[in-house]
Every structure is written in structure tokens, then in C-alpha cells.
Write a structure and sequence with these properties.
Blueprint: E1 3-6, E2 10-15, E3 19-21, H1 24-32, E4 37-41, E5 50-53, E6 56-61, E7 76-82, H2 85-100, E8 106-117, H3 123-133, E9 139-143, E10 155-158, E11 163-168, E12 171-175, E13 177-182, H4 187-199, H5 201-218, E14 222-226, E15 232-235, E16 239-243, E17 246-250, H6 257-264, E18 272-273, H7 275-285, E19 295-301, E20 307-314, E21 318-321, E22 327-336, H8 342-359
Antiparallel strand pairs: 1-2, 1-9, 2-6, 3-5, 4-5, 4-19, 7-8, 8-18, 8-22, 9-10, 10-21, 11-12, 11-20, 12-17, 13-16, 14-17, 15-16, 19-20, 21-22
């Protein structure tokens, strides 16, 4: 299976490969000439994409479930932190100072964990565990081979709650997440955490950056947009988030889901504000991100000759699995603004790693 995307209401699989596209412009042209596309966009669109025209793009109701028995996941252990926890704190501290000096208004800074297994880890077994652990059935798995020799045999697997964009006919939907707090197993404490997040001026401001940028990006494509005045609380088993469901009506029905994804990506939820300054800071501090914080999704054609429906989710809460299946790199980030506390930002990334680690039974 080269591609899987899972949501609460449906799942879609891309099986077999008719064509590969490492250049986004080639995939855009293919969609416009009646071909379905599925796969992954990199964080930096100047890097190679991993997009295919699948032989079969199959949609089913409900979250994804394996149709054949999968092997159990082998035990894994944690390896290197990239960078170390202390270095990440220092990076955040230095970035806060540069933000106060005017470099940008918000920059999303990430760090990574390496996982090692004694026997190969099957990518679809990770997906099955992640989807099974998520009450809303979120998940994705993409064979990255289409991105070129450096990615041959690698997989991107995760469980993202964040909708970049969905197009159904002329209806456009986005659901950005920004502003995060780790959940507690104690219901009373968990309720307090949610209340504190909703009342946090720092998190509300960070979220507003995201919503305002998405509004600006969508307005040229839409005749109308509905953007909530205030965010709502959304949750995963591990985290509370501030989120805003945004809907609109397309101005031109020829605008595809892939077109919209490219106009929106990367949002301030994974890059920052202003986009160019944030991307430059991420490149300087982290280096290349590859497919972390990119986008995973599909855009279709139909027998009736129409085209362009589809969905793209933000590629977070995941890992990149090595071709031999013996190691993987999980990445997590957080939005840094002038009011950020470096130790709290470290704790936020630690909480975000729990989604992937839970697939392997790790806390």
C-alpha cells in the first residue's frame, strides 16, 4: 500500500503506481488533465515531493482498518534526541530574543527523537496502532519512494488531527490547530488544563496569527468565508488544542484541493509569521525538515470528468521510518512567540511525542 489517509468518517487508500511526481508542478498538471494524485508534500516546497498517481484510489466508510492480519510491532527503544533537551531550551531562548528584536512574530521550532528496533517495523502496523489509539481514527501512511533515491523505501506514518484543507465540490474547509497543552489522566486536573489553555493570552495570540494568515490565503479563492471569532477547544488522547473550523465557498470550481493546499502550506501553525522570515529562521536553526510538517493527502478525478475534490492533512504527530524498518525519526515542534517560556516549550514537544510513542506502548 503506497498511501493511506484515515479520518473518523472515511478512509482512502492508494494502491499501485501509474506515475510518480517529485515536482509539485507536474502533479498539478496531472490533476488538471484528469489524473488522481496522492502522497506527501515536503515542508519546504522547493524540496522533492512524494506524489503518485495510484492505480487504484479506494474510498471506504469509517476509519482505516487493515484488511489482512498484520505482524505485531516489535519493541523499540529511544535513541538520540536531536538536539538534546538542553540545547532545544537554549535554541528557544535565543529565538525569543531574536523575535523581540523584530526577526519575526512567530516561529515554529522543532526537535526530533530517534527510535530503534531489533527487527523491522512494518509501517502499516504502526498506522493500525495509531488509528486504533485515536478515538477519531486519524492516521496517514505514505511511501516516500517517489521523492527520489534518498527516500527509496522510506515511509511517513502518523496520526494528525489537523486539517490543512478539504474540498467537496465548491465547499472549502480548514481546521487549524495552534495553542497546545498536555492532558492529565485526572479528570479534574484535565478540566483545569483545558480552561487555562482557553484563557491563555499567549496561546490565543499564537492561534490568531494562524487564523489571520489562513483567511488572507483563502480570500482570493472564495466568494465567502466563515471564520470563528474565537477558537474552540479540541483534544486528542494526549493533548488539548485551540482550533478554529473555517469554511468557504469556492469562487472558481476549477480550483482543486491540491491548488488550495499549495496556497495554504506551510501555515503559521507549522512555520510562523511572516512566512518567509519564519522559514529562514527554521532553516538557520534546524536545517532541512524533509516531510515533517509537510502535508499528506489526495486530490481526485471522476468518471464524470470533474476533478479536484480531496483532502490534505498537516503531516505532524508522525515519524519517518527508515527503508530497512530498523530505525525511525519522530519530530515535534511548538510555536515560539515573544512570550514563550523555553522550559514550557520543551515540555510541549515532549507531550506531542506521546502520540507516536503510544503506538509502541511507550509513555
Amino acid at each position: 500500500m503506497q498511501f493511506v489517509l484515515s479520518r473518523a468518517e472515511y478512509n482512502i487508500e492508494g494502491d499501485g503506481v501509474r506515475d510518480c511526481f517529485s515536482e509539485v508542478r507536474d502533479a498539478v498538471a496531472a490533476v488538471r488533465t484528469g489524473h488522481s494524485i496522492a502522497g506527501a508534500l515536503p515542508f519546504d516546497l522547493a524540496d522533492p515531493a512524494a506524489l503518485i498517481e495510484p492505480e487504484h484510489l479506494i474510498r471506504r466508510q469509517g476509519p482505516w482498518r487493515p484488511r489482512n492480519e498484520l505482524p505485531e510491532l516489535p519493541p523499540v527503544h529511544l535513541g538520540e534526541q536531536l538536539p538534546s533537551a538542553s540545547e532545544h531550551v537554549e535554541r528557544v531562548r535565543a529565538l525569543v530574543e531574536s523575535l523581540r528584536a523584530g526577526e519575526a512574530r512567530k516561529v515554529v521550532l522543532a526537535r526530533a527523537l530517534t527510535l530503534y528496533a531489533a527487527t523491522p517495523v512494518p509501517p502499516l502496523a504502526i498506522l493500525a496502532s495509531l488509528v486504533g489509539n485515536d478515538p477519531t481514527g486519524n492516521g496517514y501512511a505514505v511511501d516516500l519512494t517517489a521523492a527520489g533515491a534518498a527516500y527509496a523505501g522510506k515511509y511517513l506514518v502518523g496520526s494528525s488531527p489537523e486539517l490543512l484543507v478539504r474540498r467537496r465540490g465548491t465547499t472549502v474547509e480548514c481546521h487549524p490547530f495552534a495553542g497546545t497543552a498536555a492532558r492529565s489522566s485526572d479528570p479534574a486536573a484535565d478540566a483545569v488544563i483545558a480552561e487555562q489553555l482557553a484563557a491563555s493570552a499567549k496561546d490565543q495570540a499564537e492561534h490568531r496569527f494562524v487564523v489571520d494568515e489562513i483567511r488572507a490565503a483563502l480570500e482570493p479563492f472564495c466568494t465567502s468565508l466563515h471564520v470563528p471569532e474565537t477558537p474552540r477547544l479540541s483534544s486528542t488522547p494526549q493533548l488539548w488544542h485551540l482550533s478554529s473550523p473555517i469554511t468557504g465557498v469556492l469562487r472558481d470550481p476549477a480550483t482543486t484541493a491540491l491548488d488550495l493546499a499549495l496556497a495554504l502550506h506551510p501555515t503559521p501553525a507549522v512555520a510562523g509569521v511572516p512566512r518567509d522570515a519564519a522559514m529562514a529562521a527554521i532553516s538557520r536553526i534546524e536545517g532541512p525538515r524533509g516531510f515533517y510538517a509537510g502535508a499528506v493527502g489526495w486530490t481526485d478525478s471522476s468518471a464524470e470528468g470533474s476533478y479536484g475534490d480531496g483532502e490534505w492533512m498537516v503531516a505532524i504527530r508522525g515519524l519517518e521510518l527508515a527503508a530497512d524498518g530498523l530505525s525511525a525519526v519522530a519530530t515535534a515542534g511548538g510555536g515560539i512567540v515573544e512570550a514563550s517560556d523555553p522550559d514550557a516549550e520543551l515540555a510541549e514537544t515532549t507531550a506531542k511525542f506521546r502520540t507516536v510513542l503510544s503506538a509502541f506502548g511507550l509513555g
